[in-house]
User: What shape does this take?
Amino acid sequence: MRHVEAYSRLAGVYDEIVVDPCHGRWASFLDELWSADPDGVRSVLDLCCGTGLLASELTERGYRVTGVDASEAMLALARVRLGSEAVLRRMTLPDLAVEAVFDAAVCTFDGLNYLGPSELRLTFAAVARRLRPAGWLVFDLHTDAMMAFTISNPVVAGESAGNDFVISSVVDPGARTCDTTVELTRHRDGDPFSERHRQYFHTDADVQAALQDAGFAIAAVGEEYTHEPADASTLRATWTARRLPT
Assistant: This one.
């Protein structure tokens, strides 16, 4: 089995084997959240936009979305989904070379878990520079409950749309890292391959400090794109922050 660069070959089957049908629900949560802003939210920066699933939902709701992602293969699929007029850029966080100022920025489906602690701090600072005063930053992160769940369930195997896959994770609780190997043992349209990914479990204290240092006020930490407060059982926490006036 050939090992390939992360999110290169996986991009072609990502929506089928990795993603739950959640983006419509998440976009509705964001739309409701932003509707209460008297200044209005029209322009959105979608960080780690992947294949454009959330960007598509937000565009259908009338938002102007700019998507950035580190994977050209993922962006190619996003261009097909969103059309030739979509604004999509290849960038690797914390580098954020976009010139516009946005009303809101989002990062969904654990995108920020791929950043180490120092990269996360730099990314928050870069995002703050691209948001208007009182602009929104909404993102999700895996929690300590997810770390414990992954330790207890290190291997997930299945079949989807003609693809057989095995996802194996090795967690280092001391380093708060998770090394995941995604193997396509039977690929519907090609040869088997594997990709390796590293994610980080950030502590709440570190996230709070990084946001505050970047000039954000934390508005809420909730259960996955709901208004229910996150608790010890939450697997994916949704953080909502506002950029403070300078």
Summary: DSSP finds seven helices and twelve strands in the chain. Helices lie at 14-17, 23-35, 53-60, 72-82, 117-128, 144-152, 204-213.
